[in-house]
Each structure stands twice: as C-alpha cells, then as structure tokens.
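Side project, low priority. Logging it here so it doesn't get lost.
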Amino acid sequence: TLLVQDNANIFANANVKATLTISLSDGRIFEKAIAKGAVTAAANSMLAEYKGTGKYDFVGTNEKMGSNLNPDHQLDVSVNASGTITGIRVRSDKTKKTWDTIDGNGNSLVAVTNAKGERLNKQDGSVSIPLSGAANFSLWFEEDADNSPYLVTFVLSNGQVIEAATKAAAASDQKTDPKTPVKRDVTFLTAKPAVVKVDLVGKNKKPAGNGAQDTSVKVEINGNGKIVAMTLADSSSMGWDTLTSNNGRWLLGVREGAKLLNKADGTINIQIQGSKTLELLMQDNGKLRAATGNLTLSITWGNGKVTTSQLVW
C-alpha cells in the first residue's frame, strides 16, 4: 500500500492522469496507470463514499440475505480503528430510511463485503468483524433512488461509535443527456475462452502473430467516451494488457469485426458511443485451456475511470 499526502486534492480530480513507476536494481522499469487513489481514514475515524447502483445483489427489502434480482446500491467506507464491529447502520438524511445489521428490528438488511469482495454478514445478517487499523468495506442495500447524503454508523464491541456522512449528489451529476447512455459497463458474451483460427498476437507486446492460433473472448461494452487501456488478468493477477510497459504481461489484442484496433505499439484508443461488441485476442499462457478458471477485465476510460467485469468458467 502506497500512501501519499494530497492536500491539494489532486487525485480527487477525475481528469488527472497518474502513473506509478517502479525501478529495479537490475535496470528494469515497471509502469502502471493509476485510475484512482484510495483514501485512508485517520485514527478512530471513517470516510464514506456513495457509489450509486452497484453490480451485485445481496439483499432485498427485508432483514434476510438474498437476491431479489435488483442490483443493490453501493456505499464504500474506509475505517481506521481497533476492536470488533458488532453493528452497522446506513440512514438516508433525505428520507430517514434506515438499513442495518440488527436482526428483528424491522429495518432492511445492509450487506457488508471486504476489499476482496467476501460477504461478512452471518446467517441472520448480523456482523462481528475484527478491526486492527485501517480497513476498507463496501455496504450494499436496497434503495429505489439516490437519496444521499447517507449517514454511516459503525458500533464496536467496546461501545465506541464511529460515524461518517457521504456527500449529496451534485446537481451536475444528476443532469444527463437522454441521447447519451451515462452508465458504463462491460459484459462477457462468451462462456469461456475459445481457440480461434487467427494469429494476431504472440507472447510479447508486439501486435504480430507467432505461428500459433489465438484464444478469444467476446465482450459488449456500453458507455460514452474513449477507452485508452485494457487489462485481462488471470487468477495469478498476470495475463494480458494493451500497455507498452514491460510488466510481464503479453499483448491483449482488441478486434472489432476483422479489424485489429491496437496501434503499432499495442496501445488502444477506442471511441465508444452507446454499445460496441469487441473480441479480445491473446496467446494461451496455460490458464485459458483449464477446465475451470476466471478472468478479470479492467477497462480504463480517458477520464481515468475504470470499469471491470469477471468471467468464471
């Protein structure tokens, strides 16, 4: 974890582009674009950010854990304390509606996941989460609309109460062009990677074949803007990307129809207006032919925002 002091709120600006560079003693240099910095709360405090509708459905409108086929609203928190979290509450400042992890009080359940995406609620929805310093969690709750700001309350086993409020949605964020889809997402259209009869990428960063057939997955991307980079990571966090850096990954070819969209150096600059179907090409590193596996696709947009999706087979 890299920590920086950002008094000028540089990383809060969505238009800021940053690069992390690591130089090794043998002369090798590794670089990666930074999409967004993480914020760590001060000791015995908490920071909360409302993220809108998320990509998971853990809860409904009752006190039980279970999907109701509606994506939950997501709220990310960074808390820095020591003890055990025994209760969590989310309350809308606008409507006074409340969600919590207390069984039997009539409030709808709020689900809790850690930084790995693991659900932390017990069977009855309650929580007992040990804390030892800074930690990040996501809270999931059923909501009809954005009724921010939300007040988040954590109660620890020693009686300590830690609270934080999210910001209300800015008026500019609520204004949308009805002709332009504002929601960005990516969906895998293939159930698992498959070998195709093309040879456009190899085991390096050059957009050229190597005499072996490529492996392919197809994705549908929805949104508005330019895509400037893609990373397809396997279970080892390695895999393929469209970056020029010598980071151990091979080139990820991006094809629309029969046209390869990668530039001569392997990078991409793809304009999306609405919806576009793309084929991702890669050389098999041994993970793709396995009977089971998973891939995580990360798409970086021109403003630094990142959209992700996972394929499991």
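Brief comment: The chain has a mean pLDDT of 88.
Revisit when time allows.
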